[in-house]
Structures are given as C-alpha cells and as structure tokens.
C-alpha cells in the first residue's frame, strides 16, 4: 500500500487481488484498476489518475447566500 498527498488530500493505493484501489480516507475514489499491471507501473498510473480527477486550483464554491439575486 502506498500513501501520498496531493492538493492537500491524502490518498492510498492498495492492491486488491490483481487490481488496484484508490482511496481518500474511507471514500473509494476508484476500484478495480489496472488488473495485471506491474506494481510500480500501477502505482504511477494511480497517482496520474488522481492528478487528473482532482486538478489543482479547482474548488467547488457554494451559492452566494449573502447577496441573493432580486
């Protein structure tokens, strides 16, 4: 199992059977990835996938409740 931090979030990459799972705490980001791929290659691909799913600088901002549209 490999752990890494990206964009202030902690992720773990662990092997389950012959495939890989990516988790963020208790939440599963992706499961059953890269079946049959070598360990080093699969871990590198998992890190690249996380960087694609969670791009740096993108934030979800809620609605502006202080200045409603009238």
List key phrases describing it.
70 residues, four-stranded antiparallel β-sheet, 21% helix
What does this protein structure show overall?
- The chain is α+β, with helices and mostly antiparallel strands.
- It has one helix and four strands, in the order E-E-E-E-H.
- Helices cover 21% and strands 37% of the residues.
- The mean pLDDT is 85.
Strand content: 35-45%
Strand order of the largest sheet: 1-2-3-4
- How far apart lie the N and C ends? 53 Å
Topology pattern, helix = H, strand = E: EEEEH
Report the count of strand segments.
4
Radius of gyration: 16 Å
- Give helix % range: 10-25%
Give a concise summary.
The protein is of the alpha+beta class and 70 residues long. It contains one helix and four strands; from the N terminus they run E-E-E-E-H.
